[in-house]
C-alpha cells in the first residue's frame, strides 16, 4: 500500500467506529420494537371469562364475544356474545366448559368463578370445571342482595322517600328515638310487605305496568309524603295524634310500597333472573332492599343526634324537618314532571 493510501486509512479509522456503533444501535432498537410489538400482540390475546352461577342449573358467562365455548350436555346461548347463559338440565356442579380454538385469535383465558379466581385455559388445557349447587346458590344470594342495596342507595327517589318517612315517624313519635323506632317498624313493615307483593307479582308475570307509569307514580309518592312531613314544623311543636292516625300512616306506607315495588321489579328486568332459583333471587333482592333501608334510617338517626347536640335543638330540628320536606317535595315534582313528559313522548 502506498504511503498516501495508508495515511488516508489511518485518518478514516476513528470515524468508522461511531458509524458501526450507530448501525448496531439502530438494529438493536428495531429488534426491541419488533419484540415489544409481538409481546403486546400476545398480551392482547389474553381474555377473561367471568362465570356467575345463578342457580343449580344456570350460570352467566361474561367474556370476549370472540371466545368460542362448549359444554357437553348443556346449552350456551347466544353462541357469540359478551353475555351468555349456560343451562345444564342435570346441574352445573362439576360441569366442564371448554374454550374452543385457543391459539387462533385467543391464546389464554383467565377464568373467574363468582368472586374467586378460577383457572387458566390454554390450548393444551382448555377445560374449566364449574362449582357445585351450593356455590351457585351462595353466589345467587350475594349477587341479588348486592343488587337490592345498590338499587335503593343509588336511586335519589328511593333515598328521599326514606328520609321523608323518617321525619314523618319522628314527628309522630314526639322525638323519642325508641318511639321513632317503633313508628318506623310499623310503617316500614307495611311498606316492605306491599313492595314485596308487587315485586313478586310483576317478576312472575301476573302484573304488568309500564316502567314510565311506575316511575311517575314513585315521584308522586315523594310529593305526597313530603306534604305530611312539615305539619307543625313551623311552630316547632308536636301535635297529639289519635291512634287511628297510626293506621292511616301504615296504610299510606303500604300504598307507597305497592308503587315502589313496581320500580324494584323494573330493576330486575336486566338482571337475568335465574329460572331455577327465582325464589332465592327475589328473597335475596328483597333482603338487600331492607338492608339499604336500614342503612338510610341509620344515617337519618346519626344526623338527628348531631343536631340534638347543638343549642336550640327542637327549633333547629323543626327547621331541618321543614327544609327536608321542601327538598323531597321539590325533587318529587321535578321527577314527576320529567317522567310524565317521557311517558307522553312514548
Give keywords.
346 residues; alpha+beta; 3 domains; six-stranded mixed sheet; three-stranded antiparallel sheet; 8 helices; 9 strands
Question: Concise description?
Answer:
This protein is an alpha+beta fold. It is built from 8 helices and 9 strands.
Architecture blueprint of SSEs:
Layout: H1 3-44, E1 46-53, E2 58-62, E3 68-70, E4 75-77, E5 83-87, E6 96-100, E7 108-113, E8 116-121, E9 127-129, H2 133-153, H3 156-173, H4 177-204, H5 211-228, H6 243-267, H7 278-308, H8 313-345
Parallel strand pairs: 1-7
Antiparallel strand pairs: 1-2, 2-5, 3-6, 4-5, 6-9, 7-8
Helix pairs in contact: 2-7, 3-4, 3-5, 3-7, 3-8, 4-6, 4-7, 5-6, 5-8
User: What's the gyration radius in Å?
Assistant: 32 Å
| Number of self-contained structural domains | 3
Main sheet attributes: strand count, strand direction, barrel closure: 6 strands, mixed
Helix content: 55-70%
Number of helices: 8
Structure commentary:
The chain has 346 residues and is an alpha+beta fold. The chain folds into three domains: 42 residues; 86 residues, no CATH class; 210 residues. It is 62% helix and 13% strand. The protein contains eight helices and nine strands. The protein has a six-stranded mixed beta sheet with strand order 4-5-2-1-7-8. Strands 3-6-9 form a three-stranded antiparallel beta sheet, with no helix packed on it. α4 packs across α6 and α5 packs antiparallel against α6. The N and C termini lie far apart (97 Å).
Amino acid at each position: 500500500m502506498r504511503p498516501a493510501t495508508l495515511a488516508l486509512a489511518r485518518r478514516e479509522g476513528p470515524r468508522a467506529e461511531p458509524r458501526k456503533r450507530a448501525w448496531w444501535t439502530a438494529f438493536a432498537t428495531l429488534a426491541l420494537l419488533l419484540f415489544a410489538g409481538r409481546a403486546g400482540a400476545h398480551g392482547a390475546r389474553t381474555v377473561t371469562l367471568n362465570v356467575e352461577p345463578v342457580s343449580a342449573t344456570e350460570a352467566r358467562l361474561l367474556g370476549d364475544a370472540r371466545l368460542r365455548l362448549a359444554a357437553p350436555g348443556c346449552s350456551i346461548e347466544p353462541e357469540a356474545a359478551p353475555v351468555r347463559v349456560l343451562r345444564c338440565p342435570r346441574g352445573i356442579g362439576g360441569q366442564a366448559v371448554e374454550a374452543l380454538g385457543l391459539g387462533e385469535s385467543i391464546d389464554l383465558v383467565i377464568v373467574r368463578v363468582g368472586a374467586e379466581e378460577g383457572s387458566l385455559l390454554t390450548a393444551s388445557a382448555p377445560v374449566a370445571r364449574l362449582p357445585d349447587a351450593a356455590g351457585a346458590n351462595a353466589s345467587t344470594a350475594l349477587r341479588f342482595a348486592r343488587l337490592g342495596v345498590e338499587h335503593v342507595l343509588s336511586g335519589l327517589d328511593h333515598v328521599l322517600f326514606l328520609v321523608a318517612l323518617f321525619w314523618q315517624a319522628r314527628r309522630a313519635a314526639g322525638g323519642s328515638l325508641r318511639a321513632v323506632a317503633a313508628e318506623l317498624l310499623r310503617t316500614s313493615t307495611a311498606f316492605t310487605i306491599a313492595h314485596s307483593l308487587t315485586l313478586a307479582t310483576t317478576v312472575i308475570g301476573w302484573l304488568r305496568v309500564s316502567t314510565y307509569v311506575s316511575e311517575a307514580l314513585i315521584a308522586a309518592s315523594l310529593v305526597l309524603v313530603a306534604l305530611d312531613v312539615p305539619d307543625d314544623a313551623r311552630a316547632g311543636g308536636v301535635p297529639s295524634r289519635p291512634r287511628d292516625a297510626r293506621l292511616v300512616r301504615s296504610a299510606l306506607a303500604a300504598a307507597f310500597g305497592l308503587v315502589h315495588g313496581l320500580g324494584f321489579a323494573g330493576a330486575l328486568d336486566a338482571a337475568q333472573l335465574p329460572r331455577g332459583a327465582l325464589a332465592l333471587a327475589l328473597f335475596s333482592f328483597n333482603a338487600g332492599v331492607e338492608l339499604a333501608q336500614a342503612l338510610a334510617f341509620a344515617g337519618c338517626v346519626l344526623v338527628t343526634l348531631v343536631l340534638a347536640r347543638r343549642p336550640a335543638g327542637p327549633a333547629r330540628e323543626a327547621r331541618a324537618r321543614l327544609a327536608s320536606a321542601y327538598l323531597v317535595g321539590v325533587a318529587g315534582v321535578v321527577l314527576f314532571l320529567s317522567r310524565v313528559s317521557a311517558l307522553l313522548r312514548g
